[in-house]
């Protein structure tokens, strides 16, 4: 859940299941969903993967990402074996976010 940012999820390809409060929606290519601040929301990437544009406003979530993993060494999607650190939930909480 995000306490300070609104999140927009625009699926470019593949599929994503998005849960916002008590509602669950399936989104595929060229579809959009919205997760408002202060409302529990999360997403799960579909079985065949997904490419998604993730819009977060206002800015600042990049600070969470940098603390979790640091800057990318190369501009590409990390391989599946690259996992977040064990304290990722604590890092998110320091930035007013809660991982569901």
In short:
With about 100 residues, the protein is mainly β.
Would you kindly provide a written description of the structure presented here, covering whatever features stand out?
- Strands 1, 2, 3 and 4 form a four-stranded antiparallel beta sheet that branches.
- The chain is built from two helices and four strands.
- The model has no long low-confidence stretch (mean pLDDT 85).
- The termini are close together.
- The chain is globular, with a radius of gyration of 14 Å.
- By secondary structure, the protein is mainly beta.
- The chain has a single domain (6-94), classed as Jelly Rolls (Sandwich).
What order do the helices and strands come in, and which of them pair?
Layout: E1 6-20, E2 23-28, E3 31-35, E4 41-57, H1 62-68, H2 88-94
């Amino acid at each position: 859940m995000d306490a300070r940012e609104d999140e927009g999820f625009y699926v470019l390809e593949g599929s994503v299941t998005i849960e916002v409060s008590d509602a669950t929606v399936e989104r595929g290519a060229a579809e959009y969903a919205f997760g408002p601040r202060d409302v529990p929301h999360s997403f799960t990437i579909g079985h065949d993967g997904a490419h998604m544009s993730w819009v977060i406003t206002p800015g600042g979530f990049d600070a969470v990402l940098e603390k979790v993993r640091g800057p990318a060494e190369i501009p590409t999607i990390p391989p599946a074996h690259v996992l977040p650190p064990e304290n990722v939930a604590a890092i998110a909480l320091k930035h007013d976010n809660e991982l569901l």
